[in-house]
């Protein structure tokens, strides 16, 4: 039996890793200083404020499940019973707390999964350490959105399934059904891995025919448990099924590209999987984890396929991990809408696959010296780039939000009562305050609305400044000049100076470490526009008539 001091020393590395991951996730949750820039946070907060216990528990929000909403609402209600001042606790900040909390708990899940998959304690720690550093998880922990909670319940389900394979105890798989129900109540895509739960009672079982009825009953029990836990935490998926159906029809149309909306234009003419592996994963994971996780995944898949072909003993734990990954990652990657958050729950699994590659390298030879050298080089090539990139990304939250910095700059450098023309489509646009006349113009519908076209030339003639709020509009339209000729032409003329405006300031908060800085503006737009957009300020230096603008813009 280990002494308390010995146990502490043994668990100290993992405790430090969890603490580090928690620090990255909990640090400066109020990074916008009570300004909130993520639209989904407003949807969540509005849903929380629509609830009133016990008279109305329908959040009327089905794009996400209600578990996160209930968690925020009832936590605030409970705290207000202790201290009435908590009644006014911001649902934004409370939601961010739970995101950081569940994201930190996910690190523990990955540690527990890794303990079941790897025998080498160092590889277990590396897998967990990588998870604590993942920039994509750190970012989501700073948003009051359900992705971090979803990641926790999905990885918990995977851990319980792997443990079930080893121990075959009913309570384990029963808890996994509850966990998966909670995952689906957090976001409906949690149900993507439900088939694994239903098949699990049948494997591994050498007496498949003999035990079929018993295993079938177990499977029915599990699906019943899943739906009960789903109903208890997402009751209006049944009680207001028409609302759920209407929401799913809309969200499905957007996701599959059947309904074109302004905020999905970045995905026009993009290729599934290629987009994720070029515009999302290099930033959300870092190149170290991405490259070696792909190699590790290839090794694991080849081993599983070899076992099938050669009829060798199959490692069901690895199979569960791989199937869980593919069942969630592939459907979310082949959609028209390819937002970073759609594949966020798979980020920790990439860390496990990267660790599999380390294990493969360590087993490549029995010569201890060569093995240590190869393993050491591999670990360095994974850890160092990941650590550097994570620290660079984390720097975003150590600085004042760039929109607040921009607001300060405007107050110091732009004369009061100036007419500022800017872009709409954001939750908030700078300037956030001050004695200015601000016009937020709808560039998204410029192509189709002659009224907007006439307004634009008037505003250009009368405005003193123009502010580009982020890359969101100009990048998406400049690359599609045939579909959006007016908007594309507008930004080409703006940037060339032909509209009479000159760029006087560009403010950014790129990931940074010392003198190293990485421009990540071209990544999938939600990676940057919510917490570190690039803002460009233009001042009118040449004054032109309405007719000039109409002619040059071809309106």
From TrEMBL:
InterPro entries found in the cross-reference section: ArnT-like_N, LipidA_mod_glycosyltrf_83
Main location: membrane
Keywords recorded for this protein, A-Z: Cell membrane, Glycosyltransferase, Membrane, Transferase, Transmembrane, Transmembrane helix
Protein name in the entry: ArnT-like N-terminal domain-containing protein
GO molecular function, one term: pentosyltransferase activity
Domain ArnT-like N-terminal: 85-203
Compartmental location: Cell membrane
Organism for this UniProt entry: Candidatus Woesebacteria bacterium RBG_13_34_9
